Each structure stands twice: as structure tokens, then as C-alpha cells.
């Protein structure tokens, strides 16, 4: 086979698949995953090296690291804990200046990078300025690296989402497609950085709603997450973050303790959100109004650094402490102190306006809450609660499910972290209970209940409403003036002068509707007497369009949009050329407005 023939064959194959939705999303998902994976690799390396340099070398602080994340090694520097507040305050001042100068619209972006992505999906049409994830990503690196209590997952979610949005804009995709690629990019970043491709993908598509998920984004999100995860593991290996034993649920009586865990996580989640909102709005918002954003973030960084200098357990993400809790190496009172300290530290860091994510701190607080319940249960009922470390994992998933209203993604993430489904039953129970018990509060400010509450799906709402309304209830039955194709322009003038109609169906000799003649088409020729006997109705008519009584109003709306007609003839079901009335475009709009009003009154 010649190369030219081979090229033509592949060209035809590509052309045949161009309009197949699944194949198209496959390619787009892979493309977004490639870029998100590279971003995740660079972001992870920058954060880990930054922590090694600022905390380990400059400050001389040695923090525990989980087994799968300690990639930089070396002796610690001289102990200089005063370096921590100096660095965090400096990062806070720079962050506030950069945000205020270049991306001021993000000041009201919500809780963190994940919440900003949610806002962009619902209210921004999937468009994210490239400068936003760039500045947020860089400032997040320095926030976490210098000890700020924040996580990597929020920033990489926003960075991946920004990459997906940028690709969609470059490919000139629609608003709907931009939103889907926004989520695909978020899934890629989250799946890679957490080393949980399926959990990352599912979290990205469900965290934007409290009671729903974005089903259309699942395919590209899964593909993006898998590709991004694969690229990430090429550099850092496929081992999970935590080096822990395999936990297994084996005694049904243990469910009682997991129910208690769900109540504990719900209370901790309520306190976590209340504390964050109080510190953000009652303290730092007032500082920002009086002194400006830069000074608010600077003060937040200073307070965080001072707290971290005295209580190093609250510095950065804290996954090393979580691993120690899973291994049973942290006593109960220390875990309780860490929960309170981490909640306040995160609130000061993110609440002041510094960059970073709430995802990791939420997992941290939930894990420590689970650790307390697990150790107490093991102390009094050692024959039932035999593995208290498993409660840490279940607490992580249940806590985040409750505060973020994401029941599936975190659950799958924990299964991927443990590389097994031994805790699946308690994970499902505790997550479901946390969602039910915590239904009145949410971590992310821009979440909406479901698709019908989202501006992104206003089109879907319109479709659903109009699909329930039938043409037969809104068209005007009666005689309709029709024209023959051979009707001359002079005859048309007399017909138009004696009727109030503006649109005229045109039939051929066989009685078949062949077009629609509009007043606009005739107007330019009405005063040209030389053409009165030359121009016929068929010359001025445009494409035909008809409706039937059992058609819904959404079908009618599409035909009005396609033809730009103000009226469309309604034909009999038995004879599609027998015109029985007209449907006006205004009737469709009135029907929609009436239906919306009735829904609002209900």
C-alpha cells in the first residue's frame, strides 16, 4: 500500500470519527490529562523541595513525611524556628500584593482553589484567566513550603482546571464543553497529586453539587485523571502516599463505633467550617476593609508562622502526622490538640487570603477525629476494634464527604490509598451518615444543590420545561392563507393587502408544502412594476417548516431558531400537507414564562 493511499485512509477514518462524541471526548480527555500530569509533576516537586529548603534547611525543623512522599533527603539545618513566621509573613504580603494587583476578582473566589473552580463552572462559563492559576499556583507553593497550613489538592485542582479551560478556549469550544474540560483538568490534577485516579475523577465531578454530579464530564475526567496519574507515577512511582498495613473490617459489631465516628466527624466538620467562617469574615475581612488585602494576608501569615513555630504539628499539609496516627503512634490528647490547632491554623492561612487548599487540612482533621474514636474503641473493646488505625482512614473520607457533600470520590480515594476494599462497608456507612447529619452546612461556598440550581444548566432547565408543553395547547387553529408556487408578484401584492398574516406556506401543483414566504422577502420587490409578472412565489419562498399537534414546544423552539420565522404552520397528523393552524413564536415565549412563574409560586 502506498504512503499516499495510507494517509488518505487514516484521514477518512479521522473524519468519520470527528462527530462521534465519545471519541472526541476521549481525545480531549487525554490531551487535558497530559498537560495536567506535567503540571502536577512540577507542582509536587516544587512544594516538596520548598518544604525541604525553608523548613528543613533554613528553620531546622524536621517534620514526619509519609512513606510515599519523602523525595528529598539531607541533614537538617541549625534550629531557627523564628525563620518560619518571617517566611510565612513575607509570603502573605507578596501574595496579597500579587492578588490585589493582577487578579483582584479572585478575592471573592470562595473557600480555596477548588471553590474557585466550582464558581468558574457555575458562574464563569468555564472561562478561567490563565493568570489566575499561574499566580495561585506559585503563591500556593510558597505558602505550603514555608509552613502555611494548606493543602496541595486545592491549588492543583485550580491549576488543572485552568489548563482545561485554556485548551477549550484555544480549540474554540462551546461554553458547555469548556465546563466539561474545566472539570477534566481538575480531575487530572487531583487524581495525580493524590495518586488516586478514579477517586480524583469522581470527586471532581461531584464536588460542584451538594445533591448531584456532572455525569457528562465523567468520561473525559476519568481519562484525564488516568493519563495524569500515569505521568505522575513515571516520576514518583506508583506507591500510595501512606505506608500502612492493610486494614480489614471483619466484625459487624464494629459498625456501632463507625456510627459514633460519623457523629464525631459531623461535629468536627461543623466546628471546622464555623471556625473558618468566623476567622475569615469576622476578623480578616475587617482587616482587609481597613488596611487592604496585602496587610490582611501578611498578618495571617505572621499569625500562622508564630503558631507553627510553637506547635509544628500544624505546619503544611501534615500527611506525615496522619500516617503516624494510622500506626497508633500519637496519643489521644495530642490528636485532640492537633484537631483544634489545625482548624485554627488553616482558618488563619486560607481565611486571610493566602493561597492553598482546604482539601488536605479537611482530611487531616477528619483523620485525627477518626483516630480518637478508634483508640477509645480499642481501649475499651480491643476484641472488636482491633485496628484503630482504620478509623483514621474512614474518618478522612467521612469527614470530607460530610463537609464537601461528595460521597463517592473520597470513599474511592481511601480504597485506592489502602489498595483494597477491606473498609468499604464502614466507609459507606460513615460517609452516608455524615452527609445526612451535615446537610445544613458546606465547606464550599459556591456549591449549588443540583443542576437546576446552576446557571450552567439554564439551557437544560429550559429544555425540560418546554418538553412538557405540547403544540396543540398553544397554536391558533383555523384557515391559513396558502400560496401556489406559480403565484405572481402582482397577485401577491393583492393577497398581502387583504390579510394580516405575515408568513405564507407555499405549495406546488401536487399540494406539497415546498416553502414559506415571508413579508420581508416580498418587501424589496413590491414597487418594482417591471417584475410583477416575472417573480413567482416559489422564487421568494424559503425552506419549509411545519409542526404537528403532538410536538413539544422545545421542538418548536428549535425550528423557530433554525428558520427565524415568526409563525410556523401546524399540519394534520394524517396528512402532513393539510394545514390546520399556525403557531406564533410569541406563544412559545409566553408559555415558557407562564411555566416558570408557576414553578416559582410552587
TrEMBL record:
Keyword Ion transport: yes
CDD domains named among the record's database cross-references: CBS_pair_voltage-gated_CLC_bac, Voltage_gated_ClC
Gene Ontology cellular-component terms listed: chloride channel complex
Domain CBS: 475-534, 540-598
Record InterPro entries: CBS_dom, CBS_dom_sf, Cl-channel_core, ClC, ClC-type_chloride_channel
Pfam families, alphabetized: CBS, Voltage_CLC
Transmembrane segments: 25-47, 82-99, 180-198, 218-236, 256-273, 293-311, 358-377, 389-408, 420-438
Assigned keywords, A-Z: CBS domain, Chloride, Chloride channel, Ion channel, Ion transport, Membrane, Transmembrane, Transmembrane helix, Transport
Protein localization: Membrane
Location (main, coarse): membrane
GO molecular function: chloride channel activity
Membrane topology summary: Multi-pass membrane protein
Keyword Membrane: yes
Protein name: Chloride channel protein, CIC family
Source organism per UniProt: Desulfovibrio gilichinskyi
Organism taxonomic ancestry: Bacteria, Pseudomonadati, Thermodesulfobacteriota, Desulfovibrionia, Desulfovibrionales
